[in-house]
Amino acid sequence: MARYVRTGRCDPAVPWTEKAETLKEAIHRACMSRGEDGRLWHHQGRVWQRNLEAYERCLNEHLYYDGIENSEYFWELMIWCRKAAAETPGIGPVTEYDVAMRLGAWLDLEPEHLYFHAGVTEGLKALGVAIPRGVYCIDRERLPKFFWDKNLDIVESFLCGYRSEIERVMKLKG
Q1: Are 117 and 78 part of one and the same domain?
Q2: Low-confidence ranges of the chain (pLDDT < 70)
Q3: CB hemisphere CA count around 102 (13 angstroms)
Q4: Contact at 8 Å (CB) between 47 and 127?
Q5: Cβ atoms within 10 Å, residue 3
Q6: Strands 113-115 and 137-139
Q7: Residue 4 covered by a domain
Q8: What distance separates the 2 farthest-apart alpha carbons in the chain?
Q9: Which of 3, 49, 81, 90 is the most buried (most CB within 10 A)?
Q10: Cβ(72)–Cβ(108) under 8 Å?
């Protein structure tokens, strides 16, 4: 994990979103998935621009905007991002999580749970962690003890980014 953090493979849209002066501007930056240099973060490389724009419009609707603005915990913010994603064609779990992380940075909220998408699920399965059906997140205590004191966004990125390496190492161990 230390090597993962040192390599700087972090989402450049997070610090750019943090610099926004208003929530509306933060939502725009979070949804556009670009860093300050204008380059698109690779996670959203297959998401059409019009879908990102539609997601932004949905998040800016009164109900979602108020919910985002009043979120006191990351899980609350994630609920608003998931609901808006469910209403927006072409927005999947990776984009909804990434946008929630960017907005969470702006709101100073960190994940209390580990949220799933395909890469995280593969990383967890490689570690032998059972994923219950029908859930989209788990508590840190359900993870191997090594992860309990770690930032869950870094854990998410690590499990996703190193899932093949984790699988390879676990096969060598077993």
Answers
A1: no
A2: 1-9, 174
A3: 32
A4: no
A5: 9
A6: antiparallel
A7: no
A8: 52
A9: 81
A10: no
Q: Quick one: 24 and 98 in the same domain?
A: yes
141 contact partners, CB below 8 Å, separation of at least 6:
148
Question: Whole-angstrom Cα distance, residue 75 to residue 57?
Answer: 21
Domain that holds residue 82: 10-107
What separation in angstroms does the CA of 164 have from each of 44, 141, 155, 169, 170?
Answer: 21, 23, 15, 9, 10
If one counts the domains in the chain, the total is 2
Same domain for 119 and 88, yes or no, is: no
- Cβ atoms of 127 and 166 within 8 Å: the answer is yes
Encode burial over 69-96: b for 16+ CB neighbours within 10 A, e otherwise.
eebeebeebbebbbbbbeebeebebbbb
pLDDT score of 32: 94
* Cα gap 48→114, rounded to integer Å: 26
Where are any strands of DSSP class E within the chain?
113-115, 137-139
Which residue is associated with the tokens 């621009």? Answer: 49
Domain for residue 163, yes or no? yes
d(CA 86, CA 17): 23
Distance CA 76, CA 170 (A): 35
